[in-house]
Amino acid sequence: MANTEIRIKVEDIRGTQSLRGRNLTSIQDLTPDEIRVLLDTASFLKETIKDNKTAHHSLLPGKTLAMIFEKPSLRTRVTFETGMTQLGGHAIYLAPADIQLGKRETVADVAKNLSRWCDVIMARVFSHKTITELAENATVPVINGLSDLEHPCQALADFQTIKERKGELKGLKLAFIGDGNNVANSLMLLAAKVGTHFSIGCPEGYEPDEEVVGWAKASAEESGSIIEVLGDPVEAVRNADVVYTDVWTSMGQEAQVELRKMAFEGYQVNQSLMSHAKPDAIVLHCLPAHRGEEITSEVLDGPQSAVLDEAENRLHAQKAVLSLLV
Ligand code: CP
Ligand code: NVA
């Protein structure tokens, strides 16, 4: 594993000031160098916690994270809360009904109040505008824990996983099969920044956001990666090192579930589709998975799947984000 090469010390994390006080609303907030620092820090934190779960208590002692959720979550909630505990701090879960963001109180007022008590805010929201409004009004860092446009923490954990399995990121090919959604957007942006080629195979009408594709293509010109939006899933996975999928219907789109089931027929990640990727390709899924829809159990639980490492890495990647931003 590439981890063994990393020689970061806790003092280096405390001493890294370039990200301090900043927001993570989008992968666009990060430079390629900052992404490398975050991924190296995540690997270091993963390595050093193996034998000692209190190893990082010195990084954020007494600090508090406010976690706003407009939507359900397993991984994001548990990894942010566990991460804060491991860093020596504390996290507060604010359920949708607790603060009723924008209804009981404006987004700006919530941001300003939380900034007086807490050291950092993480929010999972429907509209990306809510994240930017929180960031504009908070005086502490705001982290996007998933919006309709992006899921940046997921993408960081995913690239940590790819780096562990493949060693290098530059020159690899990541194929995303399915909906051009929030997860696809963040993966595409991150791939473009670190020089990973990105091909999405999606039905017409379900392509990633055009503006995001434009941002990715601009970064790709610098990094040398190729960004492709394709209709044919077989073409997209051809020679891929990483095959990624996500649900066809994201949270908030439940009314379209039947329509989407029809639109995404033929976009399932199964053994037949995997036969077009490289033989040593890994399979990633942000989870939760709808088995038998976007992915078969055979692939999700099979030897090429790295989805549990990926889920574990949410903890380490977000600890890196928290310890460098706060
Ligand atoms: N992948 C992810 O964000 O999972 P949760 O929705 O369970 O948080
Ligand atoms: N695209 C999915 C990701 C869940 C982690 C959603 O937004 O529901």
Shape: globular
Q: Give the neighbour order of strands across the main sheet.
A: 7-6-5-8-9
How many strands, which pairing sense, and closed or not: the largest β-sheet?
A: 5 strands, parallel
Separation, N- and C-terminal Cα atoms? 29 Å
Count of helical stretches: 14
State the name of the first-level CATH class of the largest domain: Alpha Beta
Q: How many structural domains does the protein architecture include? A: 2
CATH architectural grouping of the largest domain: 3-Layer(aba) Sandwich
Rounded to the nearest angstrom, the radius of gyration is 19 Å
Indicate the low-confidence ranges by residue numbers. Answer: none
Arithmetic mean of pLDDT? 96
CATH superfamily of the largest domain: Aspartate/ornithine carbamoyltransferase
Strand segment tally: 9
Features:
single chain; 326 residues; alpha/beta; Rossmann fold; five-stranded parallel beta sheet; four-stranded parallel beta sheet; 9 strands; globular; binds phosphoric acid mono(formamide)ester; binds norvaline
